[in-house]
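Subject: Protein record for review, amino acid sequence with backbone structure tokens
Category: Structural biology, sequence-to-fold work with a learned token vocabulary.
Format: Residues in single-letter code; tokens as whole numbers, each standing for a residue.
Body of memo: The sequence and its backbone structure tokens, given next.
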Amino acid sequence: MPGKIRILFIFLFSFFALYAEGAETGNEEIASKTEERVKSDAKADEKDGKKLGFIAFPVVFYSSDTSAGFGASAVIHKEHYKDEYVSKSNSLAMVFFYTLRNQMLSANVGNLYWNNADWHWKSKLVFKKYPTDFYGIGNGTPASDHEVFEPFTFQFENSVNRRVWKSFYAGLSLSHGYHMLLKKKKDGLADSYFKDHRKNGFISGIGLRLSYDSTDDSFFPTTGSMAEITYQYHPFWLGSRYGFSRVFIDGRTFVKIPIPKFESVLGFQLMFEGVSGNAPLSFLPTIGSKDMMRGYIGDRFRDNYMIAAQTEWRFPIYWRFGGTLFFAAGRVMHNFTDFIFRDLKYGGGFGIRVQLAKKKKINLRFDMGFTPEGFKFYFNLLEAF
């Protein structure tokens, strides 16, 4: 631990020396959120919007589940189109990070818009080797039944989206990849699970995505709503060795509380995820992360379905410092018909925010989450949602 702590402080020092460029969250969403940053920059500076831009910055984060993580990200971008509803940039974002738990991820996301941003092509390439905590299947698994399994995942996804109304897009996607189990505990929970499930094989699927976003800022929204609904189907006739389908719903809304000299924001989020069929273990929905159900160990509960909701009050404190209070509740379910409010898991906590840029609310966040099972600490960039 002392060696890890020294490494963490070295990277924290490097981070603050370069903080003007920021960093992102510790997973494959980093590249996508980086692309959102490009959109925001392009919208803020019309004079330079048509120029080809390049930015690079360090990636530094910490949570009780991943330990310290560090890496780098780079973006090539060029503003393409903006109107009163959207601001879109052609871009290529790349990120790589490594954590002290030997978790590694490389992600590349490209976005291309044409015809006044009415059409959008998105391509994503991900390599991930991620040792993962496992406690068994179900909403009542004991914390003492802890072990680790290590999957490797390769994913290549392409989608074509059409703007159908204002900032509402609909599209189709085609994905290919490979999933492989690298390590598991002998005669453990994961070993028992894989006696009836595949350990490796190709994954191919088609999908449908609907999205809407009327929020006023990519990093710190104060008004508006956003929603995303995706459906993915992985049939054997597409070459997939895993036959399963997945539904994901994410809805968020933000309300500004206009108190003079104390303008704060209330945020609400509802998430649902469901998987049916023979999906890889690491694809099953989970509860517990740095962004939803903070305070629980990462991936603490896992099953076929997950539903969770959270609310967060974000308020100013002094100068560039702000604070948050948050609360979340949710559970995993084996069957879609299970009663949602039975044996709900819940947690709450508080956080401190440090604004890194004067003009944009790109915040460094420190969160402390509490649950009946204990507490967890998180250090990251950008808001939880």
